[in-house]
TrEMBL record:
Protein name: Aspartokinase
Record field: catalytic activity: L-aspartate + ATP = 4-phospho-L-aspartate + ADP
Gene3D superfamilies listed in its UniProt record: 3.30.70.260, Acetylglutamate kinase-like (3.40.1160.10)
Cellular component per GO, a single term: cytosol
Biological processes, Gene Ontology terms: homoserine biosynthetic process; lysine biosynthetic process via diaminopimelate; threonine biosynthetic process
Stated family: Belongs to the aspartokinase family.
Keyword flag RNA-binding: no
Pathway stated in the Swiss-Prot or TrEMBL entry: Amino-acid biosynthesis; L-lysine biosynthesis via DAP pathway; (S)-tetrahydrodipicolinate from L-aspartate: step 1/4; Amino-acid biosynthesis; L-threonine biosynthesis; L-threonine from L-aspartate: step 1/5; Amino-acid biosynthesis; L-methionine biosynthesis via de novo pathway; L-homoserine from L-aspartate: step 1/3
EC number per UniProt: 2.7.2.4
Domain ACT as annotated: residue spans: 273-352
Length: 406
């Protein structure tokens, strides 16, 4: 027997026929002896239509409390219809919305972009296990929360994904299944390239970066609640089968779940190639990187400017790389000069919480400024920040950054 969290997006329950098909897929899994918690989004475009009506009716004078209550109606309607569809198929079901005592998701009081109170939510979620033990299929409103005053809150756009993975973590589920209008994660947007292929597997880190940079298949914030022990996949609603193959989301590793700071044990070398407006000259970066690649010289980091490209490589490769790139500079009329700079230390700071932490870069770099430590280069993604400093400053910078994260 497995405990499954099945989340249905707005398109997958876009009309009555789709809702019944989705309900049938849940009942099919239930009849195998599995326990299932259903999470539903608002029926396709319902939230957008409600927002349009509110804007026209109120001239945007509506309060946050009123707006949260209005937009919650989409998910509350979906939950009621889906629960009714399940019961029409002969199983017990109960819809769970923020007005009910069984409501599990507790947040702060930022009504329209609430943050989850994880400790309280874990405790409150246990009531769903009692319903499951009674053979009841709970249908939970996605996207919504409730603060300590009893006010309805919302988790932001895509919040139903957050709800699904959050409940998966709180209930120690075996699997979280995201049912969408696509058959899984694609190699690119199939609306833009017909050659797009479905991926069988993708890591949490890859999925988070993909979602952050525009892919609509999953909300990146949801993945911070994904733990390695819980399986997860994305499938298309057209199958009408929760056991259908899709794209499996792998991980994260234990290291990815923690705040970590690493410091390279050996210095890096920095190579700077300059040329007038080379950022606007096609193929320059490719020529530099492919030259090093042919000699198996790995590039640790890259920085680009209007008139320069900076490459960070292992110090042991520096002399060979310097000679190889000098040949490129001499041959290419768009390039004028090359320098081999000082030894560099690289400090990498990682945490899944960074995606929800405004100002994290300034928080990390401020202690370095206070101690007059110069940052040679900095780069960042949704879950990590990489800082390059002079090698002589490396250990001091490492200790200062570690102090910030304690």
């Amino acid at each position: 027997m497995s405990l499954i969290i099945a989340k249905f997006g707005g398109t997958s329950i876009g009309n009555g026929k789709r809702i019944r098909k989705a309900a049938q897929s849940v009942v099919k899994e239930y009849m195998k002896g599995n326990k299932i918690v259903v999470v539903v989004s608002a029926i396709n475009r319902t939230t957008d239509e409600l927002l349009e009506i509110v804007e026209e009716a109120t001239n945007n004078t509506i309060t946050e409390k009123q707006l949260a209550e209005v937009v919650s109606m989409g998910e509350m309607t979906s939950a009621r219809i889906f629960s009714s569809a399940l019961e029409s198929l002969g199983v017990k079901s109960e819809y769970i919305d923020p007005y009910k005592s069984e409501w599990p998701i507790i947040t702060d009081s930022n009504l329209l972009d609430a943050k989850v109170d994880l400790k309280t939510t874990i405790k409150k979620s246990k009531i769903l296990l009692k319903l499951l033990d009674q053979g009841i299929i709970p249908v939970v409103c996605g996207f919504l929360g409730r603060d300590k005053h009893g006010y309805i809150t919302t988790l932001g756009r895509g919040g139903s994904d957050i709800t699904a993975f959050l409940l998966g973590r709180c209930l120690n589920a075996d699997e979280v299944i995201i049912v969408t209008d696509v058959g899984g994660v694609m190699s690119t947007d199939p609306n833009k390239l017909q050659e797009a292929k479905k991926l069988d597997k993708i890591s949490v880190e890859e999925m988070r970066d993909l979602a952050t940079h525009g892919a609509q298949v999953l909300h990146p914030h949801a993945l911070k609640y994904k733990v390695p022990e819980i399986k997860a996949k994305i499938i298309g609603f057209e199958h009408g089968d929760l056991s259908a193959p899709g794209t499996e989301i792998i991980g994260p590793s234990k290291e990815e779940q923690l705040k970590t700071v690493t410091f390279n044990s050996e210095p890096l070398a920095v190579l700077a190639v300059v040329g007038e407006e080379i950022l606007n000259k096609p193929g320059i970066l490719a020529k530099l990187t492919s030259t090093l690649s042919k000699k198996n010289i790995n590039i640790i980091g890259v920085s680009t400017g209007k008139n320069s490209i900076t490459l960070f490589i292992r110090k042991e490769d520096a002399q060979e790389a310097h000679k190889l790139l000098h040949d490129v500079v001499v041959e290419d009329e768009n390039l004028s000069s090359l320098s081999l700079g000082r030894d560099i230390a690289m400090i990498t700071i990682s945490s899944p919480e960074f995606i929800d932490t405004p100002g994290i870069i300034s928080e990390i770099t401020e202690p370095l400024r206070e101690h007059n430590l110069n940052i040679v280069e900095i780069s960042s993604s949704q879950t990590s920040v990489v800082i390059f400093v002079d090698w002589d400053d490396g250990k001091k910078a490492y200790e200062l950054v570690r102090g910030v994260l304690k």
